[in-house]
Design a protein that fits this description.
Largest sheet: none
Low-confidence stretches: 1-7, 270-279
Number of helices: 14
CATH architecture of one domain: Orthogonal Bundle
Distance between the termini: 67 Å
Mean pLDDT: 81
Number of strands: 0
CATH topology of one domain: MetI-like fold
Oligomer: single chain
CATH superfamily of one domain: MetI-like
Structural class: mainly alpha
Order of helices and strands: HHHHHHHHHHHHHH
């Protein structure tokens, strides 16, 4: 009996080893080439400007006014664009799904039409009272940022079961505004952050429309000041690039932490991952 028991004793099985994912050499080569391609011009610009230029660029004439004007235009464009595009995109997804292709075609027009043609046409038809205010430039920026905002919001809504969420909210007695504010917006927070980054980056980097509209925004100031002091202009460009990069990293980090708290995964800008848990405000 002892021999029989020994023969039928379970044989311990070793735990399977995790296979390490191989990272081919050609990927490292591609990453190295891409890094050199992007970092080498930045290093050359930094060496040309010099570290001393960064301490004095804030004291240059017109720097503060141009930066403040660009910041106001960015805030104005962000508010108007989201107020217009969020309800419109949600309504199209819920009530008019057949018009989504039409919306994609319409929202791509500001990219197809050259900025020079767009701003000249706007200046020809706009009233004189509007031409003397930054509002005209802000409204043109709304048109220019519409393709990026629409696609970010559309990607966020596609990751949701929007119809079920809306019907559940309505069955609990919530109206349209309550559903939009407390149910839909919290679930597309990452898409809104992506749209925000795109809008701010667009406004802070746009030159053609602002120069033709005779407004000295931050990009226009960089180009004009380049004729007086190229090193200071290069330092201002690098500073704007560095601040934009910090903004991107901050938004990505904050969105990833919030998404993980709600049961989601890592967040990447300009793309919407399918959420594993629907969130709502109580």
């Amino acid at each position: 009996m002892a021999a029989i028991a020994t023969e039928h004793a379970p044989v311990p099985v070793a735990a399977p080893r995790r296979q390490r994912r191989s990272f081919p050499v050609w990927r490292w080569v591609v990453l190295l080439i891409a890094g050199v391609y992007f970092l080498l011009p930045l290093y050359a610009a930094l060496r040309f400007a010099g570290l001393s230029a960064f301490g004095t660029v804030f004291k240059q004439p017109g720097f503060g006014a141009a930066l403040w004007l660009s910041a106001r235009l960015a805030a104005m464009t962000w508010v108007i664009t989201l107020v217009l595009m969020v309800p419109t995109t949600v309504y199209v997804h819920l009530r008019l799904p057949g018009l989504r292709r039409v919306m994609e075609v319409i929202t791509i027009l500001p990219i197809v039409i050259p900025p020079v043609v767009l701003i000249i046409g706007v200046l020809q038809v706009s009233p004189g009272s509007l031409k003397s205010t930054p509002w005209l430039l802000g409204l043109v920026y709304v048109i220019l940022s519409m393709p990026f905002a629409y696609r970010s919001i559309d990607a966020g809504l596609r990751a949701l079961d929007l119809k079920t969420l809306t019907e559940a909210s309505n069955s609990l007695g919530a109206g349209w505004l309550t559903t939009l504010w407390r149910v839909i917006l919290p679930n597309i927070r990452t898409a809104l952050l992506s749209a925000t980054v795109l809008i701010i980056a667009l406004v802070l980097g746009e030159f053609t429309m602002a120069s033709l509209d005779l407004y000295v925004t931050f990009p226009v100031w960089i180009v004009q000041f380049d004729q007086l002091n190229a090193q200071m202009s290069e330092a201002a460009s690098l500073l704007a690039l560095f601040v934009t990069w910090l903004l991107l990293m901050a938004i990505t980090t904050i969105a990833t932490r919030q998404n993980r708290r709600k049961g989601g995964g890592e967040v990447t800008l300009f793309s919407a991952a399918t959420t594993t848990q629907t969130i709502g405000e109580s």
